[in-house]
Design goal:
By secondary structure, the protein is mainly alpha-helical. The protein is built from eleven helices and no strands. It is elongated and about 75 Å long. About 35% of the residues are buried.
């Protein structure tokens, strides 16, 4: 026979275990999420993020694997097909040199996005490091770096880019890599002060928090505080800026190419195609419509993505 007291004790233990398991499950569910996980959960519910993300993903695939979308060589032309309108043979028609516009738009995606991504990385890297140092150390370091940023911030972007590119590209027959590097250098050199100011403001706010003061009281070095505590908590606003700036830099490259100072042959970009079409807008508008359309859609997608990320990372905008 079973001892009634043992059975009662066993049932009490089992009930206690069930309650404990339920408490652990409730605790796991109630565990606070991080800023990034909470932002990702919010982003997945936003149609703006889904649409812009799908467009950007498609453009990245086109840029990485252009041969999957066209088998036509974008550099091969036939003057007999000059300015021929779109047809079943050539969906976007032909340009002034008889080159397939669809193929050039597809291959131009790579160069346009490459310039935007590289310019954004360089801008965020330079501005982020300068902003972290300025905001964390303050004093004369902040004063010197802020005055340097003010000098570059006061330079008009287009005028500054014209001076830089004219000085380095004038009379030089450079390859595509050199041209892209100079365009990225000019964009980053004139744009980093914005990222620096954003990172500086975030660093000043974060360094006043209690966890930073506790780390300093425990003897943590400045480098450890910057890398382990300051940087992770200052990335959100710079990430938002970088997402929006990427689309703006693609538009900036198109502007410089339109002025004859950006990319040029052998590199093909949407800005180069728009520049080639400016004298034929009335008689052959299809030369302008398709590269300009892709440019507008790309810039709009990155701006929409940046707005969605900004709203997800800022609790006040939810």
């Amino acid at each position: 026979m079973t001892d009634p007291s043992a059975a009662a004790a066993g049932s009490t233990i089992e009930a206690h275990q069930m309650v404990s398991d339920a408490e652990h499950a409730s605790t796991a569910q109630d565990k606070p999420r991080s800023l990034w996980s909470d932002a990702w959960r919010d982003l997945r519910r936003r149609p703006m993020f889904i649409i812009s993300g799908a467009v950007i993903l498609f453009l990245l695939i086109v840029a990485a694997f252009p041969w999957l979308f066209t088998s036509v060589d974008p550099d091969v032309g036939d003057l007999q097909r000059s300015r021929v309108a779109p047809s079943a043979e050539a969906w976007f028609g032909y340009d002034t040199q008889g080159k397939d516009i669809f193929a050039r738009v597809v291959y131009g995606t790579r160069w346009s996005i490459l310039v935007g991504v590289m310019s954004t990385l360089a801008t965020v890297l330079i501005g982020g490091i300068m902003g972290l140092l300025s905001g964390f150390f303050g004093g004369w370091v902040d004063a010197v770096l802020s005055r340097i940023a003010d000098i570059f911030f006061g330079l008009p972007f287009v005028l500054g880019a014209i001076v830089i590119l004219s000085a380095f590209l004038s009379g030089v027959s450079a390859d595509a890599f050199t041209i892209v590097s100079l365009v990225v250098f000019s964009i980053a050199l004139l744009s980093w002060p914005v990222a620096m100011r954003i990172m500086r403001s975030a660093a000043i706010t974060v360094k006043q928090q209690d966890f930073v003061k506790a780390a300093r009281a425990l003897g943590a070095s400045n480098s450890r505080i910057i890398i382990k505590h300051l940087l992770p908590n200052c990335l959100a606003p710079v990430l938002v800026y970088g997402t929006i700036a990427l689309g703006a830099f693609i538009g900036a490259e198109a502007t410089l190419s339109f002025l004859g100072l950006g990319l040029r042959a052998p590199a093909v970009s949407w800005g180069v195609m728009i520049a080639d079409a400016r004298d034929y807008i009335r008689i052959a508008p299809h030369l302008l419509y398709f590269p300009a359309g892709f440019l507008v859609i790309t810039v709009l997608a990155f701006v929409m993505l940046g707005d969605a990320v900004r709203e997800a990372l800022d609790p006040k905008l939810r």
